[in-house]
Amino acid sequence: MSKTRPPLGESDHNLVFLCSEYKPLVQRQPVKRRTVRKWSQDAEEALQGCFETTDWMTLCQGYEDDINAMTGCVTDYINFCVDNIIPSRTVRCFTNNKHWIASELKNLINEKKRAFKEGDRELLRSIQKQLKFKIRDSKEAYREKLENKLQRNNIRDVWSGMKKITGFKQRKDCTDGSLDTANELNKFFNRFSSGTNPASSSPVPSQSDIPSSSDPTFSCHTPALLSSNAVMDSSGSINLSSTKSGDAAVPFTSPSHLSVYRSQVKRQLERLNRNKAAGPDGVSPRVLKAGAEQLCGILQHLFNLRLNQEKVPVLWKTSCLVPVPKKTRPSVNDDCRSVALTSHIMKVLERLLLVHLNKKTRTYQDPLQFSYRHGVGVKDAIIQLLQPTHFHLDKAGSTVRVLFFDFSSAFNTIQPDVLCQKLQKTQMGNSTITWIKDYLTNRPQFVRLKNCTSNQAISNIGAPQGTVISPFLFTMYTSDFQYISKTCHLQKYSDDSAVVGCIRDGQEEEYRELVEHFMAWCGNNHLTLNVNKTKEMILDFRKNRVESNTVSIMGEEVEVIEEYKYLGVHLDNKPDWRKNSQAICKKGHSRLHFLRTLRSFNVCSKMLQIFYKSVVESVISSAIVCWGSSIRSRDLKRLNSLIKRLVLFWARLWNHWRRSCKEGFSRESRKLWTTLSILFTRLSDNGRVSSVRGFFSFAATLTATGDPSCQQPL
């Protein structure tokens, strides 16, 4: 069965809509109705005046001993003021319409359909001509709207408009489901606290199997062995000679309780992102930001009171879990990641405490933990893995084995009691540790789906993902196991851990011992390993390779692979970066579609530049300092061809690309400058380059231009 439809554009042929004999289940997107606040300058001033004239001490009178009642009273009053002062309205959202389609254009489209059904060709031709100019005018009006925002330096709205034009990373609705599905997900996310863990957990070893701090190779809160100031020497290992023995931990006496100041609270309130969703308490960050001057006093009083009492109000640690699918079509509960929405007032307090906690625990943090640290990132972690590998493989009879660990719900397995025992070995005060334990225990949580909300559950294990302080707590939870030597080391990036073993003449006892000790430590700290996703890669360039015995974890052999995607970079056992180059070119070509769509609106060159840097260049130059000087000439030509295609969109892109590559190599402020300088030393000893700047220019030119004359063998 078929139906005739109007022609597309100015085509001479009608469209044919083929209908199947059966009736498929089509998901239609109806008109959505939303209630939004009408924020204006007058409304904000009225709200500020209401907060200014409020006697907060009288409001909180009688609740000094009940922290939950006082917190609920202040929260309810803020929401009451917002409901009565800020007007609201109900709007209709047409999901299937483009954002530049106005009501007049929509009416013309409907008139075209009616004229086609009536068979009036003259009217259809006239409407088609009007529709052509109306579409052009609508796109032009939307483009001018974005450029006006760009002139006012409103980059956020400009970026949002460009994503709407191109369809780049369109926002998807949360997972759909019934009340039973929501309760099942809530029970699954809270499985570690309820004691019903469906996954196989690591065996808990005896105390004799756990590495102690007296072992000179394994570190358990011993800053004298591992320091954040350690650097890589010319052999590719970490040089610890710069760490003095006097840097060990000394007893520290701190005030009994922490306190925050009014100016600190106000500064954090003014930094809030007003477009974030409100937490379970219903207080929007826009309200807190608008009334920062008026609310900082009462919030300072609440913060200091809670810190002195070493308690966290139940409302502040209540989490609304939103399941975020890991796959396009999730089939089991493990295919969803739980992201917690918590109170923004609590997040302000967490940011204030995080500054204090980092200062007290800086010397106890693992120097090979490359996440959640200022000035350190993915590039540093990859270089830390590659450089010892390359230096070691230059020697005869050398083999490198890399074991990539994968944890199952690492944040959800944090044990508050174990964490507090580790924090007591730092310079953190007992009152702060007690406050952290209360923050992690007795946390109400519920799951919100598209159409329903689950029942509430109480969690006593783990840290909610999406809060400010949870990454710090996980870092401290895993920082007591540190290992590094000339031949083996353990490096971490959040919960992605890797053991690198440089083996020579088949002597892999240290590597296997490190793996066994790490497994024992994981079991003792209740960290669950996913053996199916734990992989091992063996790099061996010898002609007569010797088969090595595989590593076993919990009685299962770890799969040996030839390629692994580590922190977004494809590593292989060559390593010739062939897989990584193919992935970059494939992803770069897919991003060309977005640039073509954006160019069809005739936007200015500055907007093209912003979109190019954010969407295209971020893909091409990802970890370029790691693979830029080792890429094959064949893959380099493919990348060079992709860059030449991009030049058609922006004439100045070529020079910008070369400058961007050189900046990535020659930025002396980065912590990886030391490692790159050592790599230059190796090259200069062979007489290939004469200066550090020359090496960086050579690598950047090799990557950016693809000049065969620059391709000296490395």
TrEMBL record:
**Low complexity: bias regions:** 198-216
Domain Reverse transcriptase, residue spans: 305-571
- As recorded in UniProt, coiled-coil segments are none
Q: Which domain of life is it from?
A: Eukaryota
SUPFAM superfamilies from the UniProt entry: DNA/RNA polymerases
The family database entries (InterPro entries) matched by this protein are listed as: AlkB_hom8_N, DNA/RNA_pol_sf, RT_dom
Q: Where is this region: Disordered?
A: 194-218
- An example of a Pfam family matching this protein is RVT_1
What's one GO MF term for it? 2-oxoglutarate-dependent dioxygenase activity
State the PANTHER family in the record: ENDO_EXONUCLEASE_PHOSPHATASE DOMAIN-CONTAINING PROTEIN, REVERSE TRANSCRIPTASE DOMAIN-CONTAINING PROTEIN
* Name used for this protein in its record: Reverse transcriptase domain-containing protein
